[in-house]
Write a structure and sequence with these properties.
By secondary structure, the protein is an alpha/beta fold. The protein has 10 helices and 7 strands. It is globular and about 55 Å long.
Length: 270
Amino acid sequence: MLSAARCASQVLVMLMFWCTSAIAVSPISILPSTHVLSLMVKEVTGDKHEPLLPTNVSPHDFSLKPSHVRRLQKAELVVWFGPTIEPYLAKVMRQIPDDKQLIINQDLSASNYGGHPWTSPGYLLQGMQQLRQYTGQAWNSQEWVQQMIQLKVELAASTRDMSQKNQGYLVYHDGISAFETYFGLTHLASFTNADDQPPGAQQLAIIAQLDKDDKVACILMDHEAQPKLVNAVIKSSVERIQIDILATKSHSLLVYLTRLQKALLGCGHR
């Protein structure tokens, strides 16, 4: 009888140990709202978490389906940009407990980073530090900082090269202002200032004059760009360079930012 009791006790201890270990290694169920945020979560936790939105969809405007709401309600942690950047989520997120959501850089005005704050390495770094603190991950930002310094050095050299030629670059719409601010860059002009705003006649005239004066080395074309309109305003010799603001083709944040950087490094060097 004593032996049986001892055996039962040992089995109970083993079960308790197994359960505790399983809980310890079980990753938290994180739901990033966008693909960029899923890359951020992966950078910190090492785990891949499918985003709420399709990869190629902008977070500014999206219609939630019941299946999306269910995913939000089931997640242990929802990582999102907040109601200013993602107004479509504002109503449903008011129903989610505060301890089950993490708004990236909530205390900072979204206007400080433009409409696409995730193009700023500084913004992303702050977000990853927030996530590290929330999840208790031992993520070290030193390597990230060094990589961004290297990107900045290379971009500075390229910018000097364009300046010596008295040239600059255009953007189709002002979507990488956060990236530009971080790296100390300034575009000559943009066709439009917002995703849903059509180019104005005065703006098109300014761009046409810059092109006529041979001041344009390239134009950065994002997912909103209208090639026919661009072709009607600037000559074909001006290089068209595609950029991916939504990171649809990137598997890491470093790849994403490096691709934006390479687009500018290639400006005027065709």
